[in-house]
Every structure is written in C-alpha cells, then in structure tokens.
Amino acid sequence: MRDQPVVVMGHGGGGALSAELIHDVFAAAYGNPVLAGMGDSAVLNLGGVRLAFSTDSYVVRPLFFPGGSLGDLAVNGTVNDLAMSGARPAYLSAAFVLEEGTELAVVDRIARAVGAAAEAAGVTVATGDTKVVEAGHGDGVYVTTAGVGLVPEGVDIRPQRARPGDAVIVSGPIGQHGVAVLSVREGLEFGAEVTSDTAPLADLVAAMLAVTPDLHVLRDPTRGGLAASLNEIARASGTGVRLYERSLPVPEAVAGACGFLGLDPLYVANEGRLVAFVPPGEADAVLAAMRAHPQGGGATVIGECVAEHPGMVVVATGLGGTRVVDLPLGEQLPRIC
Predict the structure, then answer these.
(1) For position 2, what pLDDT does the model report?
(2) CATH number for the 9-150 domain, one of 3.30.1330.10, 3.60.15.10, 2.40.50.140, 3.40.630.30?
(3) Mean pLDDT on 228-256
(4) Which of 3.40.1010.20, 3.90.650.10, 3.40.50.2300, 3.20.20.370 would CATH assign to domain 159-324?
(5) Is the pLDDT of residue 319 over 90?
(6) How many other C-beta atoms lie within 10 A of the C-beta of residue 46?
C-alpha cells in the first residue's frame, strides 16, 4: 500500500499511511515551524494573545448513528481539538458540501444538530459556506469546521512535553464510536446497543487545568484510536509508553464486537474521550477532578510514560507478557468521522 501511486482509503485512517501523506506531500509543500508542532490544534501568538486554531472535515457514513450524527461530530471534533491545547473554544466556522439530490430534510436535521451541539459546547458558529456538487460526486453531506479559542497564560500542552514518570490517564471507556458507526453501517447487532461517545471535552479540560496548569499532553484519540495517539506522542517526545492491559476500560459490548470482527479496541476510534499525560505528583488530584465531571466519570490510569523503548508503545498483558502496539498502517474502520 505504501508504494501506491494513488490515494487509498488508508491515507485517511490516521495511521502510518496518513503520517506519510502529511510528511511527504503537505509538510513538504508548505511546512513551517507552526505546522511542525503537529498538535490537534496550532497555538498562535497574535499581538500578545495566545490563540488555538484548528480545522477538520467530517465525512462519516452513515450520517446518523446511535448517539450522534455528522452534525455532532463536526462541532465536537473541532471543539475537542482546541481543548487539547488547553484552549477555551469560542468561535467556529461551518462549511457544508451538499450532493445534488440529497433531501433537504436531511440537511436541515444535520444543521440543527450543529446548532444544538454548538450551544451545548458554549461556542458560536460565526461564519460558514455552502457548496453543491453533482449527483454521484459526493456522499450526501460533508461538513468542514474550523475553530479558534483562547489559551490561558502558563498553559503549554503539546506531545513533545511527555516525560518519563507521567501517568497516562484516559477519560472513559474506549472504542464506542467506531463500533456504533459500524453497527449501523453494516446492520450488525452485538447483543447490546453501542452508542457513540461523541461529546465536547472543553469543560473537562478546564476542570483538569483548575487542578494544575502543568498538564503535559492531551489528545483526543479519534482516527486510529488510542494506539495511534499514544504512538504519535511517544515518537514526538522520544519517550516510551507502557500500558496495563487489565486497566484498559473496554466496555463488554465493544470487546464482544471487536472479538467477533477481529478488531483491537485500542485501534477503534473515539469521539468523546481524551488521553492525558500528567506529572506523577498531580495524577491523583487530576484523576479525582476528572471523575467528578460528567465527561470523566470513567477516568482511569491505564499506564505510564517511561524512558525505556523510546518511541514505542507496549502493553503488559494479563498473562505477564508484553506486546508492542504499533502505529496502524491505515484504519480498521474507514469513514468513521
């Protein structure tokens, strides 16, 4: 796949193929020191004010799924990208690409979901755009959102700041979004309905920063799941990550679905979870603050940052062994956001 002369689905999966595309094409074309940070959002200094800026496109199929829709993802995804820099999201743009023949009732439903999600997240949709493409040249509705927010003074959250000894904390159960989308797309039932975890995380991050502004790293593990996010952090910081299999919060229904389909929950996308690298002296207080928040009630310490095996993520298994969790090549479940 890496030698393909054309774009393949794996290039959009958040794994190794995505990283190669970004490095070899986009960064080569217009790379700069700001872009080189490769965070979920860029932190910019404009006239002494620190702004976080992020943009993302949403092409999920189907447009509606248990627990959410394309509209929810478009808002929450960008809000969360801003929050992963410690920013307080303020304003969004929303650009719609509509396919000829799409029912206006569907467009209206998605637009209303965007409005409701923005209100819930405390942000304003301040500008936007609409384009229409010919039938057969789209997939109903695509949405691109961009957002800006203010970064508090003294906050410096980025993947390069991970340090050996940091506690690795995830804010709740993993794998729900990817399994929820797959269940509707393929008409599968897993004994219990799995709903997407899509949710805004800025308030949760604010609660964590109220405990300490010295959070080292925050990431929302979307495409490529927790595995991709942790590998990116390990490589950016030159550290290793050790996870404990028995501590990973995988819901029973997600575990069952992944076992049935041959998937690893660590690689399944999330849309309302974050992973945090927290200095060891602050970990207990941050964990308590997370658990006191509605979006962090299931927060769990799942591992630690280590000096060994820099750039690698490993899992200590329940049987006493160790396995490497590599960066995925592409995406187990394409078109999930």
Answers:
(1) 59
(2) 3.30.1330.10
(3) 96
(4) 3.90.650.10
(5) no
(6) 9
